[in-house]
């Protein structure tokens, strides 16, 4: 989507360049034409007049100019001269040269040159503010207004009922609705209202729809625009647009401002290096920050923005008092998909035999937009076969077509792959539940999230932690290894799905051995590496300086490996003991795609092993080696 912003920016730049060159050529030709006018001394004029070489004359207040019968040796066909005596008219009359009078002329060519410059400059300025190329439909004449496309809508009919499958997001946004309905009351009691809310989620999950629904529910005007619209090559233009957007919204507060594709502002850095795009981007961003900092919350203005790449946003945007709240708008799970299908199916004629629940089961990974598209496609298939209503087969045909298209974009898993992911995630969850003292599991899901992650398990710590004991780290490692252990237990084979888990587990294990002195044989030594600088090399050319012997390096590798193996064995043992729960949980997960804490099976708690309790005399608490 940002590509679009860059494209318009680049196209505008080329248009600007072309117009500029054309204008320069035009002005140069013009002044060459103007050089066709020879400025001659008055005496020469009198001479030419006497010789009958003057065709006609325009008599001005201070000067004379006119056409010659034949060009001068210099090529000039016209002349200009300063009047010296009073009675030219009589002379001209006597020689039968036609003449006319003119008041205060400064030379028509000069005037025209000036006009062309003015036209040129205003064209350039208008392009700068986006007035040309139909960007705003405002046209050439509306000089002086900002041209970002801002859509202002007052009576929005969309409500929360039109958005389905995103209940958590709705709950979070309900507060904004309450606030917008009565901003003074809210702020009078000192409640903190976020100024900016960032809707984060993949494309087509209904972020724009949700933002509109908030405006519709609160019955406030909705000002919406697109991030790329602010990315311009002229310094200050984007900033002016931001100012304009907020000014418009403020004058109609309480109101909602919605910026789609906010990341365009954060990603534009360096897009136009030769045009100083860097400065422009920063100015625009700074203006946005200033507007966010500047407004008084009690006026009732809320900025909603959408992005599917929160990680590339400028961190300054996410600071307190700005976009300090993020609302996740994720792909819907099965129940959500049924609801969304229901919403869109209301607008078409359905055959009574259509089972929305089954359709939802057939469409894992579909977003709201995909589902809206599905209903549409099915209607088209039905139309083509001249049916009275849309039947299940129409949907099935439409799904096949859409899936083929989607597979290119986001990979849809095969049933076997889904089963692996379900057991993997259930493995994480069960081991976390079985180990006493682990962070509670909140949610397990096999809905692909972002790029790469095929499923996820969310554990939320009960309290903020700054220190972690050795046992906690070991527990964490066992939970991380549990996904892979489950795959091994059920399928007898390892898959590539655990790479991220392994990377995390290795980080923890290396930390324990090298930084926290938690390995008995290596002792309480920090085996951290130290960055060194090459002498005479520019800054930034670092190398890692290893401050330990080759022998220690071997021991470190062995110790790290030992910790990870122990964690893997532990996870495997827990899962083997709870195999029925694992299979039962994975089945439920395949069915519902996401399970919350109370829907998870309850595994047997891991027996507290004597070896895990600290051994007298060893303050660090030993026992790692005693693990299976
Ligand atoms: N949760 C949903 N409930 C009902 N309809 C939905 C939902 N999500 C998406 N849709 C349908 O898909 C269309 C597109 O959704 P929308 O533009 O809001 O997605 P988005 O998340 O803003 O996408 P993008 O990031 O591409 O802008 C909506 O107009 C609606 O018809
Ligand atoms: Zn995992």
UniProtKB/TrEMBL annotation:
Keyword Zinc: yes
Gene3D superfamilies according to UniProt: 1.10.8.60, 3.30.720.210, P-loop containing nucleotide triphosphate hydrolases, Peptidase M41
Subunit structure, interactors included: Homohexamer.
PANTHER family: ATP-DEPENDENT ZINC METALLOPROTEASE YME1L1 (PTHR23076:SF97), METALLOPROTEASE M41 FTSH (PTHR23076)
Protein name: ATP-dependent zinc metalloprotease FtsH
Family: Belongs to the AAA ATPase family. In the C-terminal section; belongs to the peptidase M41 family.
Residue ranges of the region described as Disordered: 594-628
Record text on cofactor binding: Binds 1 zinc ion per subunit.
Domain AAA+ ATPase: 193-333
Bilayer disposition of the protein: Multi-pass membrane protein
Function summary: Acts as a processive, ATP-dependent zinc metallopeptidase for both cytoplasmic and membrane proteins. Plays a role in the quality control of integral membrane proteins.
Matches recorded under Pfam families: AAA, AAA_lid_3, FtsH_ext, Peptidase_M41
GO annotation, cellular component aspect: plasma membrane
PROSITE patterns: AAA
Biological processes annotated in GO: protein catabolic process; proteolysis
Active-site annotation: 425
UniProt KW keywords: ATP-binding, Cell membrane, Hydrolase, Membrane, Metal-binding, Metalloprotease, Nucleotide-binding, Protease, Transmembrane, Transmembrane helix, Zinc
Domain of life: Bacteria
SMART domains to which the protein is assigned, alphabetical: AAA (SM00382)
EC code(s) of this entry: 3.4.24.-
Molecular function per GO: ATP binding; ATP hydrolysis activity; ATP-dependent peptidase activity; metalloendopeptidase activity; zinc ion binding
